[in-house]
UniProtKB/TrEMBL annotation:
This is Cupin domain-containing protein. Residues 42-106 form the Cupin type-2 domain. It comes from the Bacteria. Gene3D superfamilies: Jelly Rolls. InterPro entries: Cupin_2, QDO-like, RmlC-like_jellyroll, RmlC_Cupin_sf.
Length: 152
């Protein structure tokens, strides 16, 4: 990997408002030669997003708070210091079970950052799901993300 050293200090990075919280880019694909990306996720307690599949693998590491991850028919309760790795195309979602949670998300390739940026620019995070669903589905299709069928 060629390039420059990249530093993202506390409070730095591009914040992207998503329906499940703020995803702040700490290391984008442009900093890693497209090999991986790193996001700090600040998520409030809220209903879980529908299970979905993405073309990139990822690891969620809990920094603060607690989350329950539902992946491929399994449920995992995670607190500070715990991590879970989700393979590409695995149906998953997570819900915050404390007032809020802060996670570190590391994803393979460069697709998650493009998806998060497009989602944040296209889907208003403060609107009801029913209102934004057509936009949400349009963005997910553009990036190879799919909503998982119930029970899959």
């Amino acid at each position: 990997m060629n390039g420059k050293i990249h530093l993202s200090g506390p409070g730095e990075g591009l914040p992207l408002a998503m329906s499940d919280g703020i995803h702040t880019v700490k290391a984008g694909a442009e900093h890693t030669g497209g090999v991986y990306e790193v996001f700090e996720v600040d998520a409030p307690r809220a209903p879980a997003a529908p299970p979905h599949r993405s073309p990139w693998a990822g690891t969620m590491y809990v920094l603060d708070g607690a989350v329950t991850v539902h992946a491929d028919g399994e449920t995992h309760d995670l607190g500070p210091g715990a991590a879970v790795t989700i393979p590409a195309q695995c149906a998953f979602t997570f819900e915050v079970t404390t007032e809020n949670a802060r996670l570190l998300a590391v994803t393979t390739g460069d697709g998650a950052g493009r998806f998060f940026a497009d989602f944040a620019a296209t889907v208003p995070a403060d609107r009801p799901l029913e209102e934004v669903l057509p936009r949400l589905l349009e963005v997910t299709r553009r990036h190879g993300v799919s909503i998982a069928e119930p029970g899959s």
